[in-house]
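Fresh eyes needed here. I'd like your take on this protein's tokenised backbone:
***
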Amino acid sequence: MKKKFLVIATSLGLALSVVNVAYADTPTFYYKFNNRYVTYYNDGSNNAYKGFWTTGASRWTNNSVMSLVTGYTNDFRAGNTENSGATWDGICYTDYNWITGTINNTRSWLNTHFTAQSRYTTSIINGIATHELGHSFGLAHNDSEASVMLSYTFYSDLTTLARTYDSPTPSDTIALKNKYDGVPHGLSLTEKLNDSEPKTNKEKLKELNIKNPNNKEHVVVVTPSWAVKYTSLKDLAESADLVVKGTVSKNKGTNVKKIKDFDAVTTSTDIEIKSILKGDNELNKKNIVVKQLGGENESTLYFSEHTTPLQEKQEVILFLKKSDNNTYILINENDSLFVNLQSNPAENSTNKVVEGQYQYMADQSIISESDIISKIK
């Protein structure tokens, strides 16, 4: 944890106060652009949305980290889409080469289902655009409140901001400067990375918890900005359309659904419901389909930073939002996923597991089924 001191002057310039602000290092992904001079296509649907991306780009450029200029390119696009069946207000998909770490293309979107709501001010939307551009450059989430890369926009009261910074902080700019150190304008990143053996590059990826067991040539990192941070399971349950205890019965594969220029990549799983903790009791003992961000096809692994893929035969407790075609999504992915340790092969093989214990995938903590139920009442 690094600490910086922010000095604030009064409007009259007569007094100074010192505020101690803690900046936690912002994590980074393995991928990079070929150089720090980057052309992007501003694909905002109107002047307002073009303005959000222009502002976000200028905030990184003004910090002397990246030089972003507008132009026509299909490799780096930023725009907006409407997706009412999601819980993210912004998202970035970055496709890069698994061996070299070189970015092939990156696309960011603002979700107008949220950003058109009155609580989303210009400043807040500018912050989301800045956040998603940070992902495009290779920054991961930083859940310190002193970072524009915080995962969430609002707290669950829908008025208090979780992401209080709408511009890059020292945590973000220092991480990015270190990441691109030695990669000035015009230097080929591919040449630099090829000095290392491919195995070494793959090991670096594993350190960032990106698993590619089938060695897909392309890896696409999916990084959302969640609209709401739920501060309790009770708040999460109140927001959910359905809370169930069930068993993962079948993985139905990955689907890429095109919504205008946006490719929604999800993996569908059948869940056999054992009991209803909240919602339609008519669904008890029936099967539902749950969609998660990410997945894989023949050539590409779609890695969602905040998603733990469901595995067949796992016993789970899920907090769900109804999506399209009678399917459901996990609210903020891991924030809504509890896995019974007795049904988790990795845990069962190494640890003695107490019956009725679940692992909360958002923070890896252990909680009993009875505690989960008591907290949502």
Summary: The chain has a mean pLDDT of 83. The first strand starts at residue 2 and ends at 9. The chain has two domains: 37-188+201-227, 232-250+270-287+308-376.
